[in-house]
Amino acid sequence: MALAGTLAHCLTDRHSPYDLLHHPYTLSSMATAEAAHVPGDRLAKTLLLEDSQGYVAAVIPASHHLQIAALCEQTGRDLVLAHEDEIREVFKDCELGAIPPVAMAYGMRTYMDDTLLKHPDVYFESGNHQDLVHMSMDAFLDLMGEAEIGHFARRMM
């Protein structure tokens, strides 16, 4: 499986230029960055959150922690991290923990941390634990056009 079906459809619809980077199987974002030999600041990881209104996605660099309070303040919502079973239900065409950032294509609001925008290119999960999508920042911003940008992540120490 190279790309999740929803992601493939989204990339095709937007005529997004990208390439795939294959890497050894990993289970965490920073392990993926290391295995793929890419900086953690340039690897976008996607987290699923929820509240009584439904799901939202937060896209942050793999080298950062989500500051939920800051995201709650930005959104005006009382968000918590979604449970593993819910992630499987929402992202049915993805392996658990390999969620692509195009959560809009899965029907939810998406918030992207502005620290991702400091780089000329970005990498992100393809829907599995062995392939990353790589694209220019311009292409990524076009792909993520519906995402709201804010500041809600902090670098890990």
How would you sum up this structure, described in words?
Pfam families: tRNA_edit (PF04073). Residues 25-142 form the YbaK/aminoacyl-tRNA synthetase-associated domain. This is Deacylase. This protein is α/β, with parallel strands linked by helices. The chain has one domain (5-155): Alpha-Beta Complex (YbaK protein). The protein is 25% helix and 31% strand. It is built from five helices and ten strands. Strands 1, 2, 3, 5, 6, 7, 8 and 9 form an eight-stranded mixed beta sheet that branches. A two-stranded antiparallel sheet has the order 4-10. The longest helix is centred in the N-terminal third of the chain and has 9 residues, at 5-13. The radius of gyration is 14 Å and the shape is globular. The termini are far apart. The mean pLDDT is 95.
Short description:
With 157 residues, this protein is of the alpha/beta class. It has helices at residues 5-13, 29-36, 68-75, 84-90, 137-143; strands at 19-22, 43-51, 54-61, 64-66, 80-81, 109-113, 121-125, 131-136, 148-150, 153-155.
Describe the secondary structure blueprint for this structure.
Elements lengths: L4 H9 L5 E4 L6 H8 L6 E9 L2 E8 L2 E3 L1 H8 L4 E2 L2 H7 L18 E5 L7 E5 L5 E6 H7 L4 E3 L2 E3 L2
Parallel strand pairs: 2-7, 3-6, 6-9
Antiparallel strand pairs: 1-8, 2-3, 2-5, 4-10, 7-8
